[in-house]
């Protein structure tokens, strides 16, 4: 995804690529046979090109933890491999439950102004603003204009979703 020409151009211009992952554990057969969300976890992987160093930095950001650098890479292909590494998430199915399945959603986007602001704060030494949801005050109009400009510059978003086979934990 990072090697696409538009994404590469946006990275070179200083805009990060964001990969938002959501992993959910669902049970089947609750009230009226509908699925029920048991547990979920979300995390982001951000890729930012650092022009002065001519490297791509890959950062893992989880809500309850400080951001964690997965490394700096000279080639975009190596940064893409870092994003694609398998990640173990702390969601386990409880024993004796009904039939269950996992659902994973990936939203891949570039040029998200809030991500750029959060990443810049983190790179400047602030650990918590990106995770706490506390952002510098700004008007809705300003953020709206930034979003429109980002889309005009070629920002895009695509969502992928997959579901595991159904299973039962003894």
Give the SSE map.
Blueprint lengths: L4 H8 L4 E11 L8 E15 L4 E8 L5 E6 L2 H9 L15 E11 L2 H11 L5 H4 L7 H13 L4 E7 L7
Antiparallel strand pairs: 1-2, 1-5, 2-3, 3-4, 5-6
Tell me what you see in this structure:
The chain is α+β, with helices and mostly antiparallel strands. The chain is 26% helix and 34% strand. The chain has 5 helices and 6 strands; from the N terminus they run H-E-E-E-E-H-E-H-H-H-E. The protein has helices at residues 5-12, 76-84, 113-123, 129-132, 140-152; strands spanning 17-27, 36-50, 55-62, 68-73, 100-110, 157-163. Strands 4-3-2-1-5-6 form a 6-stranded antiparallel beta sheet. The N and C termini lie far apart (39 Å). The model is unreliable at 127-154 (pLDDT under 50).
Shape: elongated
Portion in strands: 25-35%
Number of strands: 6
Low-confidence stretches: 127-154
Terminal Cα span:
39 Å
Task: Report the helical percentage.
Answer: 25-40%
Number of helices: 5
| Main sheet strand line-up | 4-3-2-1-5-6
Spell the H/E element sequence.
HEEEEHEHHHE
**Gyration radius, to the nearest Å?**
18 Å
Supply the helix-strand structural class: alpha+beta
Could you give a short account of the major beta sheet?
A: 6 strands, antiparallel
Mean pLDDT: 76
Q: Care to give the gist of this entry?
A:
The protein has 170 residues and is α+β, with helices and mostly antiparallel strands. Helices cover 26% and strands 34% of the residues.
Any key phrases for this structure?
170 residues; alpha+beta; 6 strands
